[in-house]
């Protein structure tokens, strides 16, 4: 149990104690919460015409954050930030929060995750914003955990993609980690991904890889391949990570074997270069839970699943105000 009186100025200590891997920037969390509150309350300081009309500013209450269904929780790190910002907008004290779960925990239906005690106005005004963010993150973590459980013991790991909700990428990718998955890349800036259109524009796979190496030598280069021949061409061109797209299982297995056979040998497409000792291989396209272990059995390192972030249903959470 983590018991904390929510600070009025900074929630960074909470982020450190509750976060799954300290992977969320407190400044980013504050900015996202500010935007979400502007949506709900109007321009700062904004207003909640129902709560401020029916609840006295001096009233105090206690509310429980409760899981309405079983799953994996994530996004608890945003709860104190929402409460702090709402309190600041209303000119009231920030509620004290006691956490009985942390991000990454498996939870059951009816389980209390946290309790907040303080001005009732703050609790009610903050309710929807904190639930929207925590429910969304928990849904992603829950979905990811299903894949992680299915892949356990296979040696393969589930990856996310860039198919995220605009403005919430950091939270959703954080939730993937909380659910037992791994982030592939945060954006277009940290890993190069050579796809078919890039090959057309550059003239060949080798030309595209060489261009990235020359312009951005600090980044890893991944190449998309639809066939075994394309995969071999890509590693010979100097790629150190392959995206194997929409391959039937037998073709995928043959491609993995062909690439593994090229590891550590001279790269025919790059004079003087050697294929890496281990080329990372990622399967993607038409992946389902019922064939996850089968795909992992081909020897790939990763299965990337866009649905983790673009199609996960929320985990139903509620903020229940205790009767006085």
Automatic annotation (TrEMBL):
Highest taxon listed in the record's lineage: Bacteria
Gene Ontology MF: a single term: nicotinate-nucleotide diphosphorylase (carboxylating) activity
Pathway terms, separated by semicolons: Cofactor biosynthesis; NAD(+) biosynthesis; nicotinate D-ribonucleotide from quinolinate: step 1/1
Keyword Zinc annotated: no
GO CC annotations, alphabetized: cytoplasm
Keyword Glycosyltransferase: yes
EC number: 2.4.2.19
Residue intervals of the Quinolinate phosphoribosyl transferase C-terminal domain: 140-320
Sorted UniProt keywords: Glycosyltransferase, Pyridine nucleotide biosynthesis, Transferase
The Quinolinate phosphoribosyl transferase N-terminal domain, residue ranges: 48-138
Protein's UniProt name: Nicotinate-nucleotide pyrophosphorylase [carboxylating]
Organism annotation: Luteimicrobium xylanilyticum
Gene: nadC
């Amino acid at each position: 149990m983590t018991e904390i009186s929510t600070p009025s100025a900074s929630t960074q200590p909470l982020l450190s104690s509750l976060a799954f891997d300290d992977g969320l920037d407190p400044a980013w969390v504050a900015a996202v919460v500010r935007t979400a509150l502007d949506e709900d309350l109007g321009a700062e300081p904004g207003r909640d015409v129902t709560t401020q009309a029916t609840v006295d500013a001096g009233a105090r209450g206690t509310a429980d954050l409760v899981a309405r269904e079983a799953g994996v929780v994530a996004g608890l790190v945003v709860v104190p930030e929402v409460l702090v910002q709402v309190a600041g907008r209303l000119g009231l004290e920030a509620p004290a929060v006691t956490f009985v779960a942390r991000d990454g925990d498996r939870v059951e239906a009816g389980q209390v995750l946290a309790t907040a005690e303080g001005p009732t106005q703050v609790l009610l005004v903050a309710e929807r914003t904190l639930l929207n963010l925590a429910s969304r993150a928990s849904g992603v973590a829950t979905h990811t955990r299903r894949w992680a459980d299915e892949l356990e013991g296979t040696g393969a790991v589930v990856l996310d993609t860039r198919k995220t909700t605009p403005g919430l990428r950091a939270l959703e990718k954080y939730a993937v980690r909380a659910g037992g998955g791994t982030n592939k890349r945060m954006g277009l800036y940290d890993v190069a991904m050579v796809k078919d259109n890039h090959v057309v524009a550059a003239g060949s796979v080798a030309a595209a890889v060489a261009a990235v190496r020359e312009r951005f030598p600090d980044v890893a280069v991944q190449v998309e391949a639809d066939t075994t021949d394309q995969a071999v061409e890509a590693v010979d061109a100097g790629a150190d990570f392959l995206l194997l797209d929409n391959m039937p299982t037998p073709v995928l297995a043959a491609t993995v074997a062909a690439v593994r056979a090229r590891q550590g040998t001279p790269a025919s497409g790059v004079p003087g270069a050697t294929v890496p000792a281990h080329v990372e291989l990622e399967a993607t396209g038409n992946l389902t839970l019922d064939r996850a272990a089968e795909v992992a059995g081909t020897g790939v390192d990763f299965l990337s699943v866009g649905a983790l972030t673009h199609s996960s249903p929320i985990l139903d959470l509620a903020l229940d105000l205790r009767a006085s």
